[in-house]
């Protein structure tokens, strides 16, 4: 598959993740008397990955997340030469998704993204539950670690064929159910970057954590999985969350 097509697939997919996932939090989570709440937002994030994995997994692998791409590269599932274009596409998609969401959200009277209503991630005073920096760091590292472990396991050549998107989407849903009160859930630097760029201020100044922590968790998972569970026949393509080997 040509890199141009992969780039566009990652950009479109991450756009959808931010618009759908963050959009559910911004537009629907607290809607008067009929809000979808944490559970609804968690499900929305899982559904964005599930739908894009089936729609675009055969094009780019539907990583939609720089941490996932890095984890797969460390595990030998993604050629290092492709890592840069994937990450750029994901960040661009995340920012565009957040921009479109801001256009929609600002159509409501009195909406103020800077007042904490734009699904940004944070720690300390900017954590939904006012969790400490250390707690937020630990949460993001561990959640991303298990997310990448699930991805690597579900796309393993020994796994049941065709069910990877379901496992991955449900894993992301579970991660959000656990960690929304802690960091508003990142596990995805591109998802964090989009809203932070739109809002600026503290969201942008704290963005470093939501790059560093997910990348640490992803690297640990990518390093450990092939060593703990070595495989001889890896289903790297076609299929969600994997691409052709070099």
Automatic annotation (TrEMBL):
It is a multi-pass membrane protein. The keyword S-adenosyl-L-methionine does not apply. The record marks 45, 176, 185, 191 as: Selectivity filter. A motif (NPA 2) lies at residues 188-190. It holds the Pfam family MIP. It catalyses: H2O(in) = H2O(out). It is found in: Cell membrane. The record marks 22 as: Involved in tetramerization or stability of the tetramer. One of its GO terms (molecular function) is water channel activity. Coiled coil: none annotated. Keywords: Cell inner membrane, Cell membrane, Membrane, Repeat, Transmembrane, Transmembrane helix, Transport. The chain crosses the membrane at residues 38-56, 87-111, 131-152, 159-178, 198-225. GO terms for cellular component: plasma membrane. A motif (NPA 1) lies at residues 65-67. Its main location: membrane. Channel that permits osmotically driven movement of water in both directions. It is involved in the osmoregulation and in the maintenance of cell turgor during volume expansion in rapidly growing cells. It mediates rapid entry or exit of water in response to abrupt changes in osmolarity. Aquaporins contain two tandem repeats each containing three membrane-spanning domains and a pore-forming loop with the signature motif Asn-Pro-Ala (NPA). Homotetramer. Belongs to the MIP/aquaporin (TC 1.A.8) family. This is Aquaporin Z. It comes from Caballeronia arationis. The gene is aqpZ.
């Amino acid at each position: 598959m040509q890199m141009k097509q992969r780039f566009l697939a990652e950009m479109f997919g991450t756009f959808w993740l931010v618009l759908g996932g963050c959009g559910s939090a911004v537009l629907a989570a607290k809607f008067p008397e009929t809000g979808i709440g944490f559970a609804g937002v968690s499900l929305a994030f899982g559904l964005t990955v599930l739908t894009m994995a089936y729609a675009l997994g055969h094009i780019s692998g539907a990583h939609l997340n720089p941490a996932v791409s890095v984890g797969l590269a460390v595990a030998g599932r993604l050629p290092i030469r492709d890592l840069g274009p994937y990450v750029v596409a994901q960040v661009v998609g995340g920012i565009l998704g957040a921009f479109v969401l801001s256009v929609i959200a600002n159509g409501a009277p009195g909406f103020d993204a800077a007042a904490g209503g734009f699904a940004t991630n944070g720690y300390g005073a900017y954590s939904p539950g006012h969790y400490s920096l250390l707690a937020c760091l630990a949460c993001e590292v561990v959640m991303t670690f298990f997310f990448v472990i699930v991805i690597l396991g579900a796309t393993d050549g020994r796994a049941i064929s065709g069910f990877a998107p379901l496992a991955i989407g449900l894993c992301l849903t579970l991660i959000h159910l656990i960690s929304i009160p802690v960091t508003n859930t990142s596990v995805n630097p591109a998802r964090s970057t989009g809203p932070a760029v739109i809002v600026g201020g503290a969201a942008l100044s704290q963005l470093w954590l939501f790059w560093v922590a997910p990348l640490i968790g992803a690297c640990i998972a990518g390093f450990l999985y092939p060593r703990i569970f070595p495989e001889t026949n890896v289903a790297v393509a076609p299929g969600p969350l994997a691409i052709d080997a070099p």
